[in-house]
Each structure stands twice: as C-alpha cells, then as structure tokens.
Design a protein that fits this description.
It is globular, with a radius of gyration of 16 Å. A hairpin with a 5-residue loop joins strand 1 and strand 2. The model has no long low-confidence stretch (mean pLDDT about 90). The chain is built from 4 helices and 3 strands; from the N terminus they run ββααβαα. The protein is mainly alpha-helical and about 120 residues long. The N and C termini lie close together (about 10 Å). Helix 2 packs across helix 3.
Length: about 120
C-alpha cells in the first residue's frame, strides 16, 4: 500500500556550517521545474563549448540541478551573511553561491529529497 506521508507544508532543513533553510516540499512540479532549468543551462553551455569534457558535463549537470532545486524550493534562510557578518537577503544569485559549496549542496540535496527517498525505500514508490 502506498503511504502518502510526504510533507505538504514548508519545513526547515539544517545544513552544515550553522545554515538553516526553509523549503517548500519537493513535489513533482518543483523537481520538474528544476530539471527543466538545469537542462536549459547545460544545453546552452554545450552549445557554447562543444568540446566540453564529458565528466565535467556530468558534474555540471548535477550542480545545475541542485542549484535549480534550491532556487525553486528555498523560501527563507538563516545563518547566511556577507563578509561583514550582516545577514544576507535571500536571492537567486545568493542561493546559487550557497550551492557552490560542495558540503552545503550535498547536504541540501540529500535532505531535501529525503522524504521521497524514504517512501521509495519502504517500497511505496
């Protein structure tokens, strides 16, 4: 039996380095939007750089997907500041810069997609 116990309301994720992000649930629409944005970005890069190393292309595809998911899912954050320690307002550019940090991006991906992964692990997918 399929158990529909995925989050329906925004919730907070704790990330490394004292960062917390509030995200909307990663629904089909949110993931599809992230995948579409990532694919467009990678296509544009491949058109500009036809000799792009395949390993780099694969790495960039995942990085673009994590960044797009973060842009579409993050609603607010805590623990993010500028060089003077002043809280940094949430913006698409700032979210992308945050996701350039490998440990933050990996933790965000794992934790944001965990509810769907947990359902699949239970045999509900």
């Amino acid at each position: 039996m399929l158990t529909l116990d995925l989050p329906a309301e925004p919730y907070w994720l704790a990330l490394p380095r004292g960062v917390r992000v509030e995200i909307r649930p990663v629904t089909t629409a949110v993931m599809a939007a992230a995948q579409a944005a990532s694919a467009r970005r990678l296509s544009a890069l491949r058109a500009a750089e036809p000799d792009l190393d395949p390993d780099m292309a694969r790495g960039l595809a995942f990085a673009f997907l994590v960044k797009a998911l973060a842009r579409h899912a993050i609603l607010s954050w805590e623990g993010i500041g500028d060089t003077s320690g002043k809280p940094l307002p949430l913006s698409p550019d700032a979210v992308e810069r945050l996701m350039d940090m490998d440990d933050i991006a990996a933790a965000f991906w794992d934790r944001a997609t965990a509810p769907v992964a947990a359902v699949a692990a239970e045999g509900n997918a």
